[in-house]
Structure formats: C-alpha cells, structure tokens
C-alpha cells in the first residue's frame, strides 16, 4: 500500500512528481522518495511524511530534469527508514526502481543475489528488482530487455517503474497492483491512481495485468507479456483535481462527513422511481443469479456488507457476509448459482480482490460495489455497481460508508421480489435526515465529556449492529482510543465484565419494535453497572430515561436510522480525535486503500 | 488592470429572515430553487471573475458543503469570520487571500452580471480610483445605503462619490448602494483602520473614511437587476422576478425529475433534480420546486417556493406559500393564499401577499388550514384537522 508516480515530458519532473506524491499520500505515508534521470540518476528519499522529503530536496539542483519516478511508502517489509524508502537502486546507480505490491519470492531471489556477491542496502522486497536488472545489464542486455528479464523472475503483486542512467525512458509493469498511465500535452504520466496527475491530464490508460509500458518523450508504448504491442484504450476520467481541496474544513474527514447528503443524492439519482416503486440499476442489467448471496469485504466496507446481508435476509434472500481475508482461505462453498458481491471503496483492496478472484474461479457471478470507476474490482468482476460518493481523501471512510449503505439497499431491491415503494420513499428522505443530524448534532459536547475515557463500547441490534461495529472502528482508527462494538444481546455473555463507570456505552436504539425494546433492556443492564450511557435514538422508545446523554436522529425506517445513527457516531469519533489532537486524515499505521493481503 | 478575483461576504445570518435562517445563513436561502449565493457566483463568473474567496461564519458548513472547493471550475477559497463584527471586519479576514484590485460583493443579495461588469469596467476606466461602488436607482433606497455622486464627468461612466448615507431620510437624489465594490489595496488599508462603531467595522465606514481623506471613490450607475429579500415572504417576489426577467431563471424541469403523465405543469415553473410529481397534480404558474421535492396526487400548487426535500401530501393546495427544507404537508391541507397580515415580533405587516411560511421540517398531519399570513417555525408539529393562523414558534406542537 504504497503509491508510485512517474513522469516524462517537457516540464520539470520534480514538480510533477511532488504534486503527484501529495495526490497519493492517502495510500500511505511513512516515507517518500524520488529518482530523477538525466545522464546520471539523482535519488532522494526520506522517512516520514512527504514534507520531510520536500524540505530535504535540493530542489534547485533538480530543475531541468524532465524524467523521474517517485514513491510514497507504507511499510510491509522492514520498518520505515531512509534506507527502506523507495526508490531502490543497484550498487552502481545504473537503475532506480519504485514498486507497489508484494514480491512473494523475494527471499529466494535475495539469497540468490547475495550468493552472487550483491550487497543489499535495505530490508525491502523491492530491492531485489534493481539488482536483478543490474545483473541483466551486466550480461549485456539493453535496458528494456533487462527490465523484462527481471520482471519475469518476480512473483506476487506489483506495479513497478524503473528509470536508467543515460536513458530518457521509464519502463513499467503491472501485476495485480493498480497502475494507470496519463496521456498529457506536456508529457506522459504513470501512477497508482489518477489523482496523482489529474491536474495535468484527464486522459488515461489502465494497464492490464501482465502488460508492460514504455514512456519516452515521444510516445507511450504498451506491450503484452510476450512483447507484442497492444493498442491501449484511452479513457477520460471525470473527477477534477480541485475535488481534493478541503473547502474550508480543517480536515477532509469533516468535509466528507458534511458531503454526505450530496453524496447520497448522487447515489440515488436516476435509480429510483417513487411513482412506480421501481429501482433501476443499469450497470446490473445483465445480472442473472440472485441467490444465495455472499458478500466479501474488509473494514468499514465489511460493516456495510453486514448491513446489506441483513437487508437481503429481511427480504427473503439467503445472504451472508464474510471478511474477505478469511473468505479466500476458508473453503466457503461457492457454486455457479452463487452471487458474490465484493464491497470495496477503492476497488483495489487486495484481500477483497483475492476473494473475488476465488469466486470468479469457482464460476460464481460477481459484482463489485465500489466508488472507483476503472478499478481492479470493477474490471475483474462480472458487474460493477458504483456508489457515486465522489473522491474520499480522509483515511477513515465516512461518506463512502453511507453511500455503500444506500447502494446496497438498491441492490437488495434489485435482487428481491416484492414492492420497493416503501424503501424508495424512505431512501429519498435520507439525504435530508442526514442534513438534520449535521445541523443539530450534540456530538461535540459529548466528545468533550468523554474523550478521556478508558474505553468506549457501542451496542446495537439488527440493522444497528453493523453500525455499532462501524462506530467503534471509526473511533479506534482516528482517536486511538480503545473501542468495541457488540451485538446488544452479547454484552451479558462476557463483555459486560469490562463495563465500568469509566467506560461510556453508546446504545443505538431506533424504532419501537421488539429489537429496540430488547436493546433498552440491555441499556438498563449497563446503567446498573454505573456506566455512562449515551443513547443514539429517534425517541420512539423510553431509552432516554436510562441514558445520561442523547444523540438524536430523525424518526425514519430502519434503513434511514442506520445511516443517520452512523453519522452521529462519525461526528463523535471526529470530535474525540480532534480533542485529543490526533492526525485525523492520516491516522498512524493506516492507509486509505489496503493493496496488500 | 482587469479585476479577476472577488471576495463574497456570506457570514451573516440575516435575522429578519427567521425562521428560515435557523439552520443556514441568508445567502443559502432559495432564489427560485438555487441558493442566493449561487446566483451571485454565477453573476461574478459571467463577468469574468476567476477566483472566489467567500467569507463564511454563521451556518458555514452549509455554504462549504454546497459549493466545495470549486464552483463551475472556478476555485473557491473559504475564510471564516468567527464573530459577525461587520462587513469591514469580514473583509479584513479575507484580505490575505487576494492581491491587487479585488471585487467585494454581498453574498445575500441578488445582483446580475451587468452590475458586476459595470463596476469592473468603470473601475478600469480611471487610473486613480481607490474604490468604485456599483449603484442603481431604487425606490426603497431609504431602507438601504444611499450614495450621492458628483455631477457628470465628461467621457467616463463613473462619477466621484461625495457621500454615502445609511438609510437616508432626506430627499436628495440618492442612488442605492448595490453592494458591489471594486477595491484597490490601499482601500483595504483604510477600511481596516477605520474606527469601529459599537464594535462593528463597516465597509461603508471605511469607504467614507477614504472619501474624507480625499481619496477618489467613484460610483457607477447600473441598470442591472438587484433584488434583496428583507423578509422571508420576499422569496416569492424574488422567484417571480427571476422567472420573469431576461438573464434570470428559465422555466425548466430537470431531466432527473419524474413527472406523472397525468400531471399538469403550467409555466413558468422550475422543477429541480429528483423531484416527483404525482398524477392529477397541477403545478404552476410561478412555482419553484427545490431538489427532491415530492408532490402527491391531485395537489394544486401555484405561486409558491417549495424548498428541497419537502413532501406535499395528496389533495393539498398551496397558494402563495413558502416552505423550508424537509417540510411535510399532509394530505388535504390547504394554504389558501394571500393577502394577509403577517405578525413578526410586535410588528404587523399588513396585506402581504403571503399564504403561509412553513419553516424547515415542519410536520403537518393533514387537513390543516393555514390562514393567510401564517408563519410556522421550524420543527413545529401541527395536528390533523387544525386551522392555524398568526405565528407558531419553532419546536411547538399544535393540536385542534
């Protein structure tokens, strides 16, 4: 979970690369580096955020160099350090390499090269690549042949780019890690994700697995694994670079929380018709199978998947959700009638991709529910349902979770029989209900009251159970406080032992059905242990009598309540983290898109 | 030098527009279906402005989440004015984001591109003006700022300003200050250092200080459209003016709106994205339905501004009605239409053309009759079959 960039053209490469790296920082940020090629290679890298690299660069000396590659890293092999930062070079400084992914056979390659007398500078898997290339160069191969020979030797997932001393060409290859090329007026670009160069061009080529690219000042040439030239299809992408601005908010996360009403309108637009009670998902026109449904996802997307599975079961469709990282190793029975739905914001989540590939292999029909057009998930699944949330920069997912909840509700309507009229009516009311929460939330005050607590517990039943899990995850991610979500009924089967007067319990109680009433009973159990209780409620039960504080949500059906209750918990997590002075948009140890398993 | 950047003042609540401003500032109230501020941005961009700085304060989340980092490809920067201490203070907050000649515009009044263009052109015509003020002829000048100009200068469109008077009561021939200014850097310095009155720094006081210091401040008289909503029911007139004027708002139905084939649309109307209009409904003339409004079967709605996410139940009738966002009008409720007397605090506005003003998220249980001039505060709940009149406070419940 790193990000790579590259540029060949008529501008100063250093500016393009630094801009590009800042556009990719969400992918990881424990170190960064660049290599510029102009006769000799100039390599600079630093541990820490991109600003550490920027301040260490002799920027003026690097002017006039028009070819380069860059990297922002999130550690998988070896701790963050100057030495482990990319780019990596061979001993003689003939080639510099950046890489995103994992080289699975790196240990055997490293042993082999070490036996050959190669000295390694870093603990990374990537460093085998420049040494393999250098050995091929020594054998008399031209740079491109040497690059291909090295790539042939490595196994695993990679997006790799290399520059050579004395050459004006970048060589790149992709296998199971994202890599996109940009075709601009002032040069050619490559990156793990288009935001890296979108301020320069919106014309892109998505490299396929097994393909190679050669970027020179004159042209981009794409070849397949055998070296045959492939005519790439150039696509135009729609997000504009300014979308990345914070528009007056202190953090992307808060901006994205406030963008939710708009994001949900976009998700629904043109897809629901309240007059006829029908849901139309054009992307899924060719979808055939309907059940059983297996969801695969990780992290926040997994919580959305739990919500989606509950919805489907409620509508009579057998459905289950699985953690993607468990699914692929867990021998889950899949047959051609199974529909496997991967939920992934980025469309690049390695665990989810692995699970979806397993499902494809087993012959199941697959659907990607994703925010990213052209992502690996969108391209490799049989169908892609876009959640249309717009770019999300904050590492902690907020608006994309809400959009996943709504998109999965639409999917549930599409997959089940029976009228969707009530559901559509409820969905159309959700954007304003979210706006109501944003206008009136007391989360700031409650965060002030409890920010220093030992631990935070979240409980909910039914549709609010995934919200309890998500509320706890959000708080963990950005505040670094201990937080756990439980099915409300499970509390008394163990976790209640942890509940003290120092541990606030956030109880999600909406509606007035049996589930809500049972959760009120669980709240009483907690209250009897003197724990502070914060009820997230629409006021339709008497839970307020047992609560110390209330976070109010508008009365609505169970779908709207699950969206709005979650918004309250997003705000709570944000304000707790804010009080504790955390790095909210870039929490420690975390990356936006997890492209390693 | 051509003016390319603009500072838009959008930090004030606009208290006289309560209860509509309980959750958002006046610039975010609907002029037809789009916020007033969107119209101001449109005028600025049409006049060639390519950099926008918005001073936000009250309800700033609403402004920021609506417009984001760019509006129609023009970058938008936000500056927060924590306390509303006057337009001069707001300007000082934004000053660091701009350099050179800059336009300053009120974000809560509708101006059309002609006024903006006239100010930019007039300011560019002379090389000595520290500031140029846009003015128009207007009968209500006594409620706003009056500007007095010297007699005609030969050859240029602007004239020197001799005096600026707030709420003028004498009968000199004042032009109305349209709240569109071009300022040079040195004018900013004077505005910042001008004495405050009662803790508030006003931009007009700063301009007066410039005039007193014998700096040339010029005014240009424009024939462009300028509209201000002083009271919430003025939103009806604002919509009418926009629907009827050239360069206002075109009568349109968004492609994403769903209109039943047996509904009748009588233009001019504006029906925004995601609206639903049921069978037998008659919409218009002079109706603006904001985003995602739902109109039930057989509803009659004329001369009304219905803000986003509102639902109007079947068989309801709305005449001369203004609603906030997310309102629920129940089945068979009737807003009979103006004119009526409107009570605001201890003032009575007689014979206003208002059927009813129903603020954000009011819940009406159906069969409710609204007497002419009724104002219902936000989140109020009105029981089925009730007849209401006068002013109903926010968060209250009314039963028959």
Automatic annotation (TrEMBL), chain A:
Family annotation (Gene3D superfamilies): Glucose-6-phosphate isomerase like protein, domain 1 (3.40.50.10490), Glutamine Phosphoribosylpyrophosphate, subunit 1, domain 1 (3.60.20.10)
Residues of the active site: 2 (nucleophile), 592 (for fru-6p isomerization activity)
EC id: 2.6.1.16
The keyword Oxidoreductase belongs to this UniProt entry's keyword annotation: no
Glutamine amidotransferase type-2 domain location: 2-218
GO MF entries: carbohydrate derivative binding; glutamine-fructose-6-phosphate transaminase (isomerizing) activity
Reactions it catalyzes: D-fructose 6-phosphate + L-glutamine = D-glucosamine 6-phosphate + L-glutamate
Broad enzyme group: transferase
Subcellular location: Cytoplasm
Role description: Catalyzes the first step in hexosamine metabolism, converting fructose-6P into glucosamine-6P using glutamine as a nitrogen source.
Record's protein name: Glutamine--fructose-6-phosphate aminotransferase [isomerizing]
Species assigned in the record: Natronorubrum texcoconense
Name of the gene: glmS
TrEMBL record, chain B:
Reactions this protein catalyses: N-acetyl-alpha-D-glucosamine 1-phosphate + UTP + H(+) = UDP-N-acetyl-alpha-D-glucosamine + diphosphate; alpha-D-glucosamine 1-phosphate + acetyl-CoA = N-acetyl-alpha-D-glucosamine 1-phosphate + CoA + H(+)
The enzyme's E.C. designation: 2.3.1.157, 2.7.7.23
UniProt KW keywords: Acyltransferase, Multifunctional enzyme, Nucleotidyltransferase, Transferase
EC top class, as a word: transferase
Residue intervals of the Mannose-1-phosphate guanyltransferase C-terminal domain: 265-337
Gene Ontology MF terms: glucosamine-1-phosphate N-acetyltransferase activity; UDP-N-acetylglucosamine diphosphorylase activity
Pfam families in alphabetical order: GMPPB_C, NTP_transferase
Domain of life: Archaea
Domain Nucleotidyl transferase: 6-243
Coiled-coil region: none
Pathway the protein contributes to: Nucleotide-sugar biosynthesis; UDP-N-acetyl-alpha-D-glucosamine biosynthesis; N-acetyl-alpha-D-glucosamine 1-phosphate from alpha-D-glucosamine 6-phosphate (route II): step 2/2; Nucleotide-sugar biosynthesis; UDP-N-acetyl-alpha-D-glucosamine biosynthesis; UDP-N-acetyl-alpha-D-glucosamine from N-acetyl-alpha-D-glucosamine 1-phosphate: step 1/1
Keyword Transferase applies: yes
Transmembrane portions of the chain: none
Listed name of the protein: Bifunctional protein GlmU
Source organism of this protein record: Natronorubrum texcoconense
């Amino acid at each position: 979970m790193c990000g790579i960039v590259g540029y060949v053209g008529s501008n100063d490469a250093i500016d393009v690369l630094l801009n590009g790296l800042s556009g990719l920082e969400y992918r990881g940020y424990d170190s960064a580096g660049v290599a510029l090629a102009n006769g000799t290679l100039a390599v600079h890298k630093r541990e820490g955020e991109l600003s550490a690299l920027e301040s260490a660069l002799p920027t003026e000396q690097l002017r006039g160099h028009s070819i380069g590659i860059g990297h922002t890293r999130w550690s998988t092999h070896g701790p963050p350090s100057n030495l482990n930062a990319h780019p990596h070079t061979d001993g003689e400084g003939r080639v510099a390499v950046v890489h995103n992914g994992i080289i699975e056979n790196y240990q055997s390659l490293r042993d082999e090269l070490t036996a050959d007398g190669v000295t390694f500078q870093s603990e990374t898997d990537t460093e085998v690549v420049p040494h393999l290339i250098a050995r091929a160069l020594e054998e008399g191969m031209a740079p491109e042949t040497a690059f291909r020979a090295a790539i042939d030797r490595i196994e695993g997932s990679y997006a790799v780019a290399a520059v050579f001393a004395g050459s004006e060409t970048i060589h790149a290859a992709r296998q199971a890690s994202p890599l996109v090329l940009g075709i601009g007026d002032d040069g050619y670009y490559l990156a793990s994700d288009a935001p890296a160069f979108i301020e320069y061009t919106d014309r892109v080529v998505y490299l396929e697995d097994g393909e190679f690219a050669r970027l020179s000042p004159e042209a981009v040439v794409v070849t397949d694994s055998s070296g045959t030239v492939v005519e790439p299809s150039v696509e135009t992408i729609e997000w504009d670079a300014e979308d990345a601005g914070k528009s007056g908010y202190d953090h992307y996360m808060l901006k994205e929380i406030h963008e939710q009403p708009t994001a949900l309108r976009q998700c629904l637009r043109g897809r629901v018709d309240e007059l006829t009670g029908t849901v139309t998902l054009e992307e899924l026109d060719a979808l055939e199978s309907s059940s059983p449904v297996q969801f695969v996802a990780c992290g926040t997307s997994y919580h959305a998947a739990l919500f989606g599975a509950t919805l489907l079961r409620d509508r009579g469709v057998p459905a289950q959700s699985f953690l993607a990282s468990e699914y692929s190793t867990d021998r889950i029975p899949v047959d051609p009638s199974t529909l496997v739905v991967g939920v992934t914001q980025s469309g690049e989540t390695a665990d989810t991709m692995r699970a979806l590939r397993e499902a494809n292999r087993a012959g199941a029909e697959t659907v990607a529910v994703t925010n990213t057009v052209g992502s690996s998930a969108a391209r490799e699944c049989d169908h892609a349902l876009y959640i249309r949330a717009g770019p999300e920069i904050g590492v902690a997912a907020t608006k994309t979770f809400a959009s996943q909840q709504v998109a999965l509700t639409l999917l549930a309507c599409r997959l089940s029989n029976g009228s969707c009229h009530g559901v559509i009516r409820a969905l159309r009311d959700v954007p304003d209900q979210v706006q109501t929460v944003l206008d009136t939330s007391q989360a700031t005050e409650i965060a002030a009251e409890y920010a220093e607590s030992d631990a935070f517990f979240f409980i909910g039943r039914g549709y609010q159970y995934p919200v309890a899990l998500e509320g706890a995850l959000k708080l963990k991610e950005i505040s670094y406080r201990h937080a756990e979500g439980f099915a409300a009924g499970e509390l008394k089967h163990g976790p209640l032992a942890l509940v003290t007067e120092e541990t606030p319990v956030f109880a999600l109680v909406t509606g007035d059905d049996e589930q809500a009433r049972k959760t009120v009973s669980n709240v009483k159990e907690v209250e009897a242990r003197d724990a502070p209780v914060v009820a997230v409620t629409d006021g339709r039960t008497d839970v307020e009598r047992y609560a110390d504080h209330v976070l109010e949500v508008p009365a609505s059906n169970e779908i709207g309540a699950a969206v709005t209750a979650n918004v309250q918990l997003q705000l709570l997590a944000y304000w707790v983290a804010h009080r504790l002075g955390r790095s909210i948009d870039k929490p420690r140890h975390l990356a936006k898109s997890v492209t390693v398993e | 030098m051509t003016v390319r950047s603009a500072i838009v003042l959008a930090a004030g609540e606009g208290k006289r527009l309560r209860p509509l401003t309980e959750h958002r500032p006046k610039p975010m109230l609907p002029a037809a279906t789009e916020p007033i501020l969107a119209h101001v941005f449109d005028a600025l961009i049409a006049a060639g402005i390519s950099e926008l700085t918005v001073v936000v304060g009250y309800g700033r989340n609403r402004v920021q989440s609506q417009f984001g980092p760019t509006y129609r490809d023009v970058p938008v920067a936000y500056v927060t004015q924590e306390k509303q201490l006057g337009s001069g203070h707001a300007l000082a907050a934004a000053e660091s984001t701009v350099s050179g000649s800059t336009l300053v515009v009120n974000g809560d009044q509708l101006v059309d591109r002609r006024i903006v263009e006239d100010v930019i052109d007039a300011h560019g015509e002379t090389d000595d003006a520290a500031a140029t003020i846009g003015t128009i002829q207007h009968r209500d000048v006594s409620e706003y700022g009056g500007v007095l100009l010297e007699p005609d200068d030969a050859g240029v469109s602007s004239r020197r300003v001799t005096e600026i008077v707030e709420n003028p009561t004498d009968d000199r021939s004042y032009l109305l200050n349209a709240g569109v200014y071009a300022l040079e850097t040195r004018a900013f310095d004077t505005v910042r250092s001008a004495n405050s009155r009662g803790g508030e720094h006003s931009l007009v006081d700063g301009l007066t200080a410039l005039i007193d210091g014998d700096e040339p401040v010029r005014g240009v008289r424009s024939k462009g459209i300028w509209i201000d909503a002083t009271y919430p029911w003025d939103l009806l007139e604002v919509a009418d003016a926009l629907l009827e004027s050239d360069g206002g708002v075109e009568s349109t139905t968004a492609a994403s709106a769903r209109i039943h084939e047996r509904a009748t649309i009588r233009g001019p109307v504006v029906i925004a994205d995601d609206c639903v209009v049921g069978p037998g409904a008659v919409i218009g003339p002079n109706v603006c339905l904001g985003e995602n409004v739902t109109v039930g079967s057989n509803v009659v709605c004329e001369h009304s501004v219905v803000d986003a996410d509102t639902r109007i139940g079947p068989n309801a009738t709305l005449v001369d009605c203004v609603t906030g966002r997310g309102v629920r009008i129940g089945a068979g409720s009737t807003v009979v239409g103006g004119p009526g007397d409107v009570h605001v605090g201890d003032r009575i506005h007689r014979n206003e053309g208002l059927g009813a003003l129903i603020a954000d998220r009011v819940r009406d249980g159906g069969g409710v009759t609204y007497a002419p001039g009724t104002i219902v505060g936000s989140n109020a709940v009105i029981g089925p079959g009730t007849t209401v009149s006068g002013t109903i406070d926010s968060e209250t419940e009314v039963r028959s």
